[in-house]
Here is the input.
Amino acid sequence: MKQINVGLIGFGTIGTGVAKMLMQNSRVITDKLGANLVLRKIADLDITTDRGIQVPDGVLTTNVNEIINNPEIDIVIELVGGYEPARSFVLKAIANGKHVVTANKALLAVHGEEIYAAAKDRGVEVLYEAAVGGGIPVLSAIKGNMAGNNFSTVLGILNGTCNYILTKMTREGADFAATLKMAQELGYAEADPTFDIEGIDTAHKLSILLSLCFGTRVEFKEISTEGISAISAIDIAFARDFGYKIKLLAIGKRDGDRIEARVHPTMIPVNYPLADVDGAFNAIRLTGDFVGPVMFYGRGAGMDATASAIVGDLVSISRNIVAGISRRSAPLGYLDNSIKQLAIKPMHEIVSKYYLRFTVVDRPGVLAKIAGVLGTHGISIESMFQKGRSQEESVSIVIKTHDAREGNVRAALAEIDGFDIVMEKSNLIRIEDNLE
Here is the structure.
């Protein structure tokens, strides 16, 4: 029986899960593949820490070149993370004629074009199912079963840390700082959570999804990105009053020859399926012209779920090796000469409903002054709440608007925030309640 050899770079949590799955489920993999998938080498700077699994003697090494330059290794798994040295490892492996599997969304969002071009020149494959949604098989579905569709929207809850924090805030009424600290203590958030809570991780993943869905290359820096650090318990409470939940949402929409590409906290109706995605789970909702709306849901991170996606990519490449073929599909689903450079719709042109919260002095005429400014900028009020009148000197005025242009809303808030009646910077959250 044919043997396909694998080298693993990075023996952290996810790497441990991959090694565990390859060894524990070797029989079922062989039965489905018709070949033996063998983990020949694991490279990591730390090969002494106990990972809870026993690997054969001679498999562990601190020298990554024992994988990259080993002519017997067919597929390299990159799980280092970040930009460098991951980029160099991947490009060198490709140059040496090795197929690559990675879970590194940041690497692909920033250096994907270079990596895909190198793989094409060398005639090898780069698969990355685990880069978006952990164990959720959404990328292979876009490139495979749904390949005949034109997609109009892609919406995603793509970061488990943010979703865990917002879920806890919604259920318990806690503030952001306390909930983040709890998430760090429980291991749901990193010691430095910036990439997660500021939306950067989600934007990396959206960059990949946009390319696959719309056949265009979207640079990570082009995606308008906001995190959840400004969300407060009072925003969560008001959202509930309006019939919404707040989620950090990745949004991609096709608008003619342009696309919307944005990541930000978003209010979505409580009766929508995406609103029920709680805790560390992820979900991706796609709308195709023939398939209609489809939602994928599952564990978006974690050792076992991510390992499942990585091993799935290994099996896909191995089936091609067994069949003597390669590159049955392009890395982005579209052939290179079919990829268009669609423009990103400027954020100031986005049209949405808005939740606006103002902290103002408790004085007659304040609401009328705010409403007047909104009206001057063409912003119509759908509903309004006011809370806080007791012994406090300030009150919160919350307004839900009808559809308005982002640029108009920003201009109105800048004018209102200049008034002496405003005690804190006004808060804005966009509303998505028409997801069809």
The first helix runs from residue 13 to 24. The radius of gyration is 24 Å. The mean pLDDT is 92.
